[in-house]
Amino acid sequence: MMQEKQDGTASAAALEVIAAWCAAPHSFSAQARQSAKHAIVDTVGCMLAGASDRATLAVRAAFAREIGTRGAAGVAGGDCAPAALAALVNGTAAHALDFDDNFHGATTHASAVLVPALLAIGERVGATGAVLIEAYLIGLEAQAAIGKGVNPSHYTAGWHSTSTVGCIGAAAATAWLRGLDQAGISAAMSIAASMASGLKGQFGTPVKPLHAGLAARNAVEAALLAGAGMTGSMDVLESSQGFLKLYGGPDPRGWDNLAFGATSIIETVGLATKCHPCCGSTHRAIDMVLDCPPSAPMAQI
Questions:
Q1: High-pLDDT (> 90) share of the chain, %
Q2: Disulfide check for 211: which of 121, 163, 188, 250 has CB 3.0–4.6 Å away?
């Protein structure tokens, strides 16, 4: 869908620009692929460590009848489940200990959404590791593109970007991994925009890691729906009753002049991996305390 600029020229909707980039051929560098591989392995470790957390156990218990020895994808804690449910459980597990990476390019816990969603779809379609890595890098760029339009205003307004921006970006990656074309990727993101939710008012409760699981599940379901022919508005991000207006907060930037760099964002902005299993905003204070000599007066701390 073309939109008219103030100067009278036409421009493609943001979703279409992002989808066109996702669908185009890519030549990611060896460094980018290696960084993505590390992120995926790190997230799988977080999933395994978080499998016994109460949030993960609650999700497993809620859907116990659908988890068993048969299913499209493996589930943290054992057994298999349908792809969307596997993404829900694994996404919750990945974020349960808050040990998963931060992605400042989108103000998200990018990998906790992307990896569970991509593993679920990857197992379903029999994707190779190399293809999974490419899908991850595409999803990271898509998250960054969505996030640039609304953050930091969106996050400051109280939205948990991991479950909003993360969901839409991961939908692009899962749609690509399913083999959808540009139109299908656009449709998946449009569908995901109507699924995006998650309030920072839930921080400090088990619902916070559930946000990552819900985003991963929604990304999978958006891709499956798009593959089955479901479509949505192409300008849902910037329309008068769309994502920007409703979710953008007091001062969103929008997507004018949206473009992708020649170098992968994993090489420029990068991912922030964690030394401590807790919110990244607490790490500087933790490091300060740990670096302070044991005999230092409290005033110095």
A1: 84
A2: 163
Q: Has residue 83 been placed in a domain?
A: yes
For residue 67, give the CATH number of its domain.
Answer: 1.10.4100.10
Residue with tokens 């991912």: 271
Whole-model pTM: value is: 0.91
Number of domains in the chain: 1
Are 26 and 134 in contact by the 8 Å Cβ rule? The answer is yes
pLDDT at 299: 52
Which of 68-77, 154-163, 166-175 is predicted least confidently?
68-77
Residue 165 confidence (pLDDT): 98
Asked whether residue 281 is assigned to any structural domain, the reply reads: no
Q: Calculate what percentage of the chain has a pLDDT beyond 70.
A: 93
Domain that holds residue 74: 13-250+259-276
What is the DSSP code string of the chain? -EEE-TTS-EEE-HHHHHHHHHHS-----HHHHHHHHHHHHHHHHHHHHTTTSHHHHHHHHHTGGG-BS-SSEE-TTSSEE-HHHHHHHHHHHHHHTS-S-BBTTTTB-HHHHHHHHHHHHHHHHT--HHHHHHHHHHHHHHHHHHHHHHTTHHHHTTB-TTTTHHHHHHHHHHHHHTT--HHHHHHHHHHHHTT---BGGGTTSTHHHHHHHHHHHHHHHHHHHHHTT----TTTTTSTTSHHHHHS-SS----TT----SS-HHHHT--B--SSSS-GGGHHHHHHHHHS-TTS-GGG-
| pLDDT tens digits along 6-40 | 443 346 899 999 999 999 999 999 999 999 999 99
